[in-house]
Amino acid sequence: VLFTCVDTSTQPQGEALHYPPNNGEALGGNGERGPLFSSDFYPQILPKSHLFEQMVRVVEIVQPKLFLFENVAGLLSARWTSTGERGEIFRDIIGDKIGFRRLHNFEIRWELIHAKDYGVPQNRPRVLIVGINRNYIEPPEMEPAPRDDTFVIAPTAVSQRWLPPKTTNGAPNLRELLSDLTGGNWENGGDEKKYWRDPESEIQKWLRTKGNRVLGKGEALTEQKYSKHKPRIVEKFRHMLTHGEIPPEYQTKKFAQRVLPEKWEKGGPSITATSLPDDYVHFSEPRTLTVREWARLQTFPDWYVFKGPRTTGGRRRAGDPSKGDWSRDVPRYTQIGNAVPVLLAKALGIHFIRLLHERSACRFTAIQTKGAFKNGTVHGTCAAQSKTINAVRHWISRTRSVAPKAGRRRPKAGLPQVFKSLADRTP
Asked: Please, are residues 80 and 88 in contact by the beta-carbon 8 Å criterion?
């Protein structure tokens, strides 16, 4: 995500531009999963594994006020080759040769955060790298980032207030999240078209809020279509709900499902929603989760519409590069699983907006540094803003020193027209 400086005469400052993160690093390991790649393929020879270099180039050209890089926790231990050093990819990404620290105008910090600390009902650890352009924003903490023998600089983005602090309310459990979608007329392969009850928790009210009202019982519900499981799979799920484990005759070495807990243990959420809904079994019904329930794990509101196939697999999902077919279907479960959780994105967005407004270099210099304009330390647009702010402050202090008579407003003599609306709002 890039927050870039734009023409304020036509658009608000801090416009967000989107740049995709590096899916190559999202492997968190040496190779890409799937039938098209073998263990001999390592990130070093996959072109998409070097997309971060293009992001560095874009940041260098655009010079945004702030940028955010997001990726999976496995990035911290990923290697370019099988004989490479653990964590070498991340060191290159954050380093000063081809990585983000080569951007001379930017201060760089990073952190390994967990979505559960921001109200999301998942553990979902993610690596976030934040870059702040010193030409536009005064960084929250100017102390040099401490060195770390493993990762070049230590993770301090949260402690130094570059990223939002953890929330104190915690994350909702799955009963609080999904109870209003559970216990209705569940039918294997069926499709629930309406809410069968009113919301029962605060998170449900928030998810069912559309516009300025909360969707109630009997109103339209989308994406609550149940998967059509074979009878033996339904029996398998029933056994898992009763005994908490997969029956021996269904166990395999490569794949293991588990029943979602109705309530979290002491450590909070322990799951991460991926692109595969078959990873988990519903906590009270012998089935996997619907698209709507999967979306709720990512805190998407119920009015959000997803397009594309519901599920897909095999060549339809990955194409066939051996035959020159690079087409890919992206099913709805995958769209949801690959997204940044809405509540996490909201926390980040609000925090960055505050940084843009409260830590603006222009605002900081003009208000916090007395005489900055006169001393010639403010230039260009900042100089103009500083002069305007100083003029308004001078006029307000002068008019406040004159005691107005009863029933009369403070004098506006000599007030430039551009400041009159501000003066009318000044107590």
From this structure: yes
- Pairing type for strands 213-214 and 209-210 reads antiparallel
> Which neighbouring-strand residues pair with 71?
127
Decide: residue 277, CB within 10 A, 0-12 exposed, 13-18 middle, 19+ buried: buried
Query: Cα–Cα distance between 45 and 223 in angstroms, integer?
Result: 39
Bridge partners of 67? 2, 131
Facing residues of 133 across strands? 106
Distance CA 139, CA 107 (A): 8
- Quick one: 406 exposed, middle or buried, by C-beta within 10 A (0-12, 13-18, 19+)? exposed
Whole-angstrom CA distances from 117 to 127, 163, 273 are 14, 12, 16
Three-class SS of residue 202?
A: helix
- pLDDT tens digit string along 352-397? 999 988 887 654 443 344 443 334 444 444 544 454 455 555 655 6
- Inter-residue contact 109 to 154 (CB < 8 Å): no
β-strand partners of 68: 130
Retrieve residue 284's tokens.
Answer: 């009270």
pLDDT 10s digits, 24-79 = 444 444 333 333 333 445 666 676 778 899 999 999 999 999 999 999 999 999 99
Residue 108: how many other CB atoms lie within 10 Å: 24
Q: What are phi and psi of 131, to 5 degrees?
A: -120, 130
Contact 296, 319 (CB under 8 A): no
